[in-house]
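Final report, results section. Input specification for complex C-07:
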Amino acid sequence: MKAAVEKLRSICFFSPVFLISVFVFVLPVAATGSPEIFSVVLPADNSMVEGDFVSVVVKVNSGSPDALRVSRNNSDVSNAPVHEGKDYYCRTIALAYGPDEITVSALKGGKIVETKKVTVFHRSDISKEYHINPPEFTNNPFHTGDKRNECGLCHRMELSEKDIKPANPGDSMCYQCHKRITSYSNVHGPAARWACLTCHDKSSSPVAFSTKQPDRDACYTCHQEEKEKWTRKKYFHGPTATGKCTLCHNPHASNNPFWLRKPTWDLCVTCHEDRASGAHVIVGFGSGTHPTKGRPDPLRYGKELTCASCHNPHASNSKALFRNDDDDPYNLCKACHKYK
Ligand code: HEC
Ligand code: HEC
Ligand code: HEC
Ligand code: HEC
Ligand code: HEC
Ligand code: HEC
Ligand code: HEC
Ligand code: HEC
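Structure output:
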């Protein structure tokens, strides 16, 4: 029965009745200008984006262009030949924080015959400049309503049993459209296995695939040990106390250890700019400064000294969040400086 409905849908899409209805609908609009060669299906103009990527989906309508060019902030990101009979072109691109202007051009005989621009805003809590979303950019979640008629022409849009524990990434329904999400050097266990549905709720509504809020509820389902360790401590670090673990950690992957959104030192000084000099470390021991990076960490072989060499980013029994849980800074010094 379901298969039959699907079949009917795909037939309807190409049937003369359908085409005529589209024609009638489009005609009055087209009459005011030349017909569109292509339309940008996604992303919607003035969307706010929280992830590091956005997907550009272009539909070629008429005019048989030879190629489509996509650029972001005036740098080309792709150039795809247009094939006879293929009308949809999909491409996921990486974004920079702040406004990203995406330009799509259709080319014919080496000349640009049509250009369209959409602007999206990549907001982030750890961007000093772009942590607040300007009001003209709005959140436009993709996974709402039924996308089977459009995307389902080529993509599998229904979940199946194998999406819970896919044997290969390619078996995951999500992989078709989100493969870029794990394209980093460090990938978090469950994302590496494309077990996306361990955190993304398949029956959430009205937006499908949302995650538990705050994040810590999702994280602690597996990280029980950390939960117990940290909740026994006297002090929680401000941002960790909010439960938004993804403020600092990308839940999927990143090029930094612990899938941090920025290298540790850069992450900390985003919010604690005044500590970057290291002058705070030896208050009471003279007027010099203490290195906070760029030296080997004496306590952690093979790692560089960072703010986390002395402070625990999550919780501690010391008010200054010292790693050794001891309020006395001198005991901290002694851990690295045996001679003192
Ligand atoms: C460990 C839990 C976890 C797993 C596993 C996981 N996600 Fe997520 N995902 C999240 C959380 C939490 C957010 C919200 C992040 C935020 O608020 O910035 C999110 C956000 C997203 C977003 C929105 C954009 C972004 O990057 O914030 C996409 C797309 C996404 N996930 C896709 C996937 C796919 C595809 C998989 C499988 C490879 C997956 N996720 C696996 C926890 C997870
Ligand atoms: C005419 C068939 C067709 C339709 C319709 C279609 N796609 Fe695609 N899409 C593809 C193909 C084929 C690929 C793989 C392209 C590749 O690997 O180069 C793809 C890949 C993608 C990707 C991954 C691109 C990348 O760079 O990793 C995304 C995201 C995507 N499609 C989203 C969508 C969305 C959203 C819709 C509906 C609005 C849609 N597609 C409709 C054929 C289609
Ligand atoms: C047909 C392509 C397609 C498939 C299949 C798909 N997604 Fe998406 N998803 C998108 C697009 C497009 C966006 C908007 C963000 C972007 O442009 O990359 C998106 C956004 C999201 C978001 C952010 C919230 C939202 O609704 O915009 C989450 C979370 C997400 N996807 C999770 C998943 C998970 C988990 C799966 C697999 C169960 C999945 N997606 C399968 C295309 C797809
Ligand atoms: C489905 C279970 C699962 C969930 C849910 C989960 N994790 Fe993990 N996490 C793992 C596994 C397994 C490992 C160890 C394997 C690896 O390195 O990926 C891990 C490792 C980590 C590590 C590195 C630990 C180390 O000592 O190297 C960090 C950081 C982390 N997870 C953060 C998170 C955050 C943040 C969340 C919530 C957004 C989360 N995890 C949710 C399973 C999970
Ligand atoms: C302020 C930023 C920040 C927040 C918020 C944060 N983390 Fe971390 N996390 C880090 C840093 C930095 C490290 C690496 C520490 C190091 O180098 O020892 C880390 C390491 C980890 C590790 C590896 C093991 C360990 O204990 O060091 C896990 C697991 C982890 N975080 C999970 C979480 C979870 C779960 C949450 C939410 C409850 C969270 N983090 C919130 C910054 C943060
Ligand atoms: C998103 C912003 C943010 C980031 C990133 C961040 N912090 Fe914090 N930090 C805070 C806030 C907010 C407080 C609480 C300030 C207060 O209560 O006065 C805090 C407090 C602290 C304290 C003092 C605790 C106290 O009660 O006085 C230390 C130490 C600290 N952070 C270290 C770090 C380190 C190390 C990192 C990097 C791993 C880091 N922070 C990353 C926002 C941040
Ligand atoms: C070598 C050890 C060490 C390193 C590295 C270090 N700190 Fe500290 N930090 C300390 C000590 C010691 C104190 C307590 C100073 C005092 O008592 O006034 C402190 C205090 C703080 C406080 C205030 C806590 C309070 O209770 O008032 C913050 C915030 C802080 N550090 C952030 C950072 C950040 C951010 C970095 C990285 C740029 C960093 N620290 C690197 C040792 C360190
Ligand atoms: C996590 C390890 C660690 C802790 C804790 C630590 N230091 Fe250091 N300290 C270092 C490293 C690494 C250097 C650089 C050594 C080098 O370059 O040879 C350094 C250098 C110094 C120097 C020389 C300054 C310079 O410019 O090279 C002084 C003085 C010093 N530390 C005092 C302290 C005091 C006081 C404390 C306690 C408040 C402390 N340190 C805590 C690791 C640490």
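The mean pLDDT is 89. The pocket of heme C (ligand 7) is lined by residues 265, 268-269, 272, 275-276, 280-281, 283, 290, 292, 307, 309-311, 319-320, 329, 332 (CB under 6 Å). This concludes the modelling results for the funded period.
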